[in-house]
Design goal:
The complex is a heterodimer of chains A (about 140) and B (about 180).
Chain A: E1 4-10, H1 20-32, H2 36-55, E2 60-66, E3 70-77, H3 85-88, H4 98-102, H5 110-117, E4 120-125, E5 131-138
Chain B: H1 2-53, E1 57-58, H2 59-65, E2 69-72, E3 80-81, E4 83-86, H3 90-93, E5 101-105, H4 110-119, E6 123-126, H5 134-142, E7 147-149, H6 154-163, H7 170-179
Parallel strand pairs in B: 4-5, 5-6, 6-7
Antiparallel strand pairs in B: 1-3, 2-7
Chain lengths: ~140, ~180
């Protein structure tokens, strides 16, 4: 199986469309026929990352790479970046605005939840330099 | 007189001891009977709880119990709903195992639909008679997610479903924590 690469664009503060890309990724993975539990974990990570980029980050891109052994989500945005990555990974730590909370988000569970559901997570970010997440999932036992 | 008193005292004293012993016997007998009853009660009660646990409701049951209006999902009234959850916090819906459960929520925006589809929720019930916008209905229809609206409050809605045997998601959450 050749690698399958799909790219989706993320627009900052576009709450009307926020999450649409992740839903497309979910149906893409369903159509390929992965295990429901794996699809659930990937969809949740994609959605959390997409919502983070829309709410806190800037315009960016969501890249999905599917190969026989791994599924990799790469989410990048040109927003203000994460000041303290270690702090952002702590459950309950949040920099959400009242607007985010009105939509039902901002509980400080985004990054910790990605970390919990992914097989590996790499965060490349610093103050004023945007954010790049690389979220990796193993397919089957591989 | 002394003899009488002496003779009289003995049996009385003996009888008092005897009565005390008898009372003790009755007390311990009652205590054991009571604990037996208590154990039996707990056993029966546990059995009842287990009976309830296995009970899944259909979407139609939920619609009837909540006297809800079905906005999307005419074709899905017979789907089984394993458990229920209630939240206005979409972040919470993304943690833990929420697939095939019914979500009761007071939040009425398009993110409720998207989050529910991502989390694999079976159906969404808007409480306190909230009416979805056209955009929300279109999204729900597009993703085949049943959408209902009930006049009951969140608390009453949960109670009505719980009372008929629909359980929460706790057990599944703890097994998920153990396995991961």
């Amino acid at each position: 199986m050749a690698n399958l690469v799909n790219s989706f664009s993320i627009k900052a503060r576009d709450f009307a469309k926020a999450g649409e890309n992740s839903l497309q990724i979910q149906s893409l993975l369903k159509s390929i026929g992965f295990e429901p539990e794996l699809i659930r974990r990937i969809s949740i990570c994609a959605y959390e990352a997409e919502m983070n980029a829309v709410m806190h980050g800037g315009d960016g891109e969501l890249l999905v790479t599917v190969d026989p052994k791994n599924i990799v989500l790469e989410v990048s945005d040109d927003g203000p970046g994460i000041k303290d990555v270690k702090l952002a990974l702590r459950e309950g730590y949040s920099t959400a605005t009242p607007e985010h909370r009105e939509m039902g988000f901002g509980a400080g569970m985004g990054l910790p939840n990605i970390n919990k559901n992914a097989d590996s997570l790499a965060i490349d970010s610093s103050d004023g330099r945007g954010t790049r997440l690389r979220i990796k999932f193993k397919v089957g036992d591989g | 007189m002394i003899y009488v008193a002496e003779f009289g005292q003995l049996p009385i004293e003996f009888c008092a001891k005897c009565a005390r012993n008898a009372l003790r016997c009755i007390f311990f007998f009652e205590l054991s009977a009571l604990s037996f009853e208590l154990f039996r009660f707990i056993r029966v009660r546990n059995r009842r709880v287990n009976d309830i646990k296995t009970k899944a409701l259909s979407l139609k049951d939920i619609k009837d119990l909540l006297r809800a209006e079905l906005i999307v999902g005419e074709d899905k009234l017979d789907i089984p709903v394993k458990a229920g959850t209630a939240s206005d916090l979409m972040s919470d819906m993304l943690t833990g195992q929420n697939s095939n459960v019914v979500l009761l929520t007071g939040l009425c925006n398009v993110q409720v639909i998207r989050t529910s589809v991502i989390a694999g929720v079976a159906a969404v019930v808007l409480v306190r008679g909230k009416q979805p916008t056209e955009e929300i209905i279109t999204q729900a229809r597009e993703h085949g997610l049943p959408l209902l609206s009930t006049s009951f409050t969140m608390f009453t809605s949960c109670g009505r479903l719980f009372n008929k045997g629909l359980m929460g998601v706790e057990e599944k959450v703890s097994t998920l924590h153990h396995s991961r």
